[in-house]
Amino acid sequence: MSDSAVHSLAGAAGGIVAMLATYPLIVLSTRAAVETQNDDKTVIQVGFDTVKREGVRGLYNGLSSSLVGVAVTNGVYYYFYERSRSIILDSRAGSKALSTLESILAGLIAGSATAIISNPIWVIQTSQAVQSAGTTLPDPSASKPRKIGAVETIEKIISKDGLAGFWRGIGPALVLVINPIIQYTVFEQLKNAVIKSRTAKLRVNRQGSTVAVLGDWDFFILGALSKLVATGITYPYIVVKNRLQAGQVHAEQYKSSFQGLSTILKEEGLRGLYKGSGSKLLQSVLTAAILFAGQKRIYELTKKAVSSLAKPATRTVVKQS
């Protein structure tokens, strides 16, 4: 198996681990983002309301769709990135490393393909995550709202909007392709700055040519900071995307990403553009930190597992006379 395929599997595995660890925060931020009836409702209040209505299980609505989405998203992204990278490198002679602009181009191609292909999965997940949002609190003696499965959610989306419903929110989703580009650009700049600073100190103290090496906690902190910047900049588009994917608003209401932002700003003020941002920022930061800190180890474990599975079983052949 190629090294890029192993990286793809490692990315999928890391994404699943991070998703399992932070999923309740995704549900809370999504519900807060699509809730337009009460501008003063905080993420904590949304969390209490969810648990009262549906129990702790309500914090995991749409988890199965999300795990599938993470695996598909990472797999598709790595595939298209590596394909784009190969095409770019094959089109010219010389260096076999991508320039910054070429890396951005490959990222845009991979991100756009991933957004288009995986959008139906995230529409299903978002619809499940907010299925009970905005409902009134039932009587304490009444049973909790019935949890709607993926199949029933798919049927509801088709009956309401047809097949086009699976691509609700694709506009802002394509805009959000810039999120990982911002994240990795900030990460590389921070990493280079830290390495340069520490290397300079090492050379002053030891009079040698030692280059500083970053540890797991360095990657954890730098990954968290870079994701904080990227998500903070692009969060208003996440609000628009979530509302469209959840079916809480219709395409004619938000005819474009910019028009959606303008509508929210006019009707709900600046706070409306950052509804649920607290839990989303926390979830995004923790996810990125886990992935950056564990990337090397997850990659090594994945490569070892793939190698052991690919190794042909030895058989003893007895020659018959």
Automatic annotation (TrEMBL):
Q: Which residues cross the membrane?
A: 7-26, 59-80, 101-122
Localization in the cell? Peroxisome membrane
**Where is it mainly found?**
membrane
**Is rRNA processing a UniProt keyword of this protein?**
no
The Solcar repeat boundaries are 2-87, 98-193, 218-301
Q: Which InterPro entries match?
A: MCP_dom_sf, MCP_transmembrane, Mito/Peroxisomal_Carrier
Q: Which PROSITE patterns match?
A: SOLCAR (PS50920)
Q: Which GO terms describe its molecular function?
A: ADP transmembrane transporter activity; AMP transmembrane transporter activity; ATP transmembrane transporter activity; coenzyme A transmembrane transporter activity; FAD transmembrane transporter activity; FMN transmembrane transporter activity; NAD transmembrane transporter activity
| Annotated coiled-coil segments of the chain | none
Tell me which domain of life the UniProt entry assigns to the organism this sequence originates from.
Eukaryota
Q: Which UniProt keywords apply?
A: Membrane, Peroxisome, Repeat, Transmembrane, Transmembrane helix, Transport
Q: Does the keyword Mitochondrion apply?
A: no
Q: Which Pfam families match?
A: Mito_carr
Q: Name one GO cellular component term.
A: peroxisomal membrane
Q: How does it sit in the membrane?
A: Multi-pass membrane protein
State the similarity comment.
Belongs to the mitochondrial carrier (TC 2.A.29) family.
Q: What is this protein called?
A: Mitochondrial carrier
Whose protein is this, by species? Paxillus rubicundulus Ve08.2h10
